[in-house]
Amino acid sequence: MKISPEEVAKVAKLSRLDLPQDKLELFAGQLGDILDYMDKLGELDTENVEPMFSPVKHTTVLRKDEVRKEYSREEVLSNAPKQDGQFFIVPRIV
Amino acid sequence: MSDLYMKTLSEMAGLLQSGEVKVAEAVKDCLSRIEATEPQVKALITVMGEEAMKEAETLDAAGPDANKPLWGVPIVLKDLLATKGTKTTCASKILEDFVPFYDGTAVAKLKEAGAVIIGKSNMDEFAMGSSTENSAFMQTANPWDTDRVPGGSSGGSGATVAAGQCYAALGTDTGGSIRLPASFCGIVGLKPTYGRVSRFGLIAYGSSLDQIGPMTRSVEDSARVLQVIAGHDPKDSTSVDVEVPDYLAALGREDLNGVTIGLPEEYWGEGLDTEVEEACKAAVAKMEALGAKTVPVKLSLTDYAIATYYIIAMAEASSNLSRFDGVRFGHRNKDAEELVDMYTSSRTEGFGDEVQRRIIMGTYVLSSGYYDAYYNKAAKVRRLLREDFDKAFEQCDLIAGPVCPTTAFKAGDKADPLQMYLMDIFTISCNLAGLPGMSLPVGLGKDSGMPVGLQFMGPAFCEDKMLSIAECLERHLDPMPMAAL
Question: pTM of the full predicted structure?
Answer without folding.
Answer: 0.97
